[in-house]
Amino acid sequence: MQTPDNNDDSLNKLLQSWHPKVEMPSDFQRSVWRRIEAREQASHAVWWREVADWMTLSLSHPVRATAVIVATSLLAGWMGIAQARDAAAALELRIESRYAESINPYAQAHARQVQP
């Protein structure tokens, strides 16, 4: 009778000597990438479908629909304020630059030389 260690050694030798001969089809890599793309597209489609189903279910209840509308309005208002603040800062910088140029005699002389 063989001991477990002896059995493992013979199995290891057998597995090391085994070299399977497998031929792959010529379009194997292309086929793999095609399947990967199909799965990715399917997973994106499923995700959007789940979001749409959740929105439909959520908006079918008046309290949830009101909460979504209020949250969306608050988010849009906050984003609008942030964008307006950035635009106001840019406008203020331009006004400051124009004022500095208007009182600087060197800038006025340069502006006259540049104009045709």
Which terms would index this structure?
116 residues, mainly alpha, 0% strand, elongated
Protein described:
With 116 residues, the chain is mostly helical. It has one domain (33-114). 84% of the residues lie in helices and 0% in strands. The protein contains four helices and no strands. It has helices spanning 4-17, 28-59, 62-103, 105-114. It is elongated, with a radius of gyration of 36 Å. The mean pLDDT is 83.
Helix content: over 70%
Q: In percent, how much strand structure appears in the residues?
A: under 5%
Overall tally of structural domains: 1
Mean pLDDT level: 83
Classification by helices and strands: mainly alpha
- The coarse overall form would be elongated
Tell me the series of helices and strands, N- to C-terminal.
HHHH
Summarize the structure.
The chain has helices spanning 4-17, 28-59, 62-103, 105-114. The protein has 116 residues and is an all-alpha fold. It has one domain.
Task: Give me the secondary-structure topology.
Elements: H1 4-17, H2 28-59, H3 62-103, H4 105-114
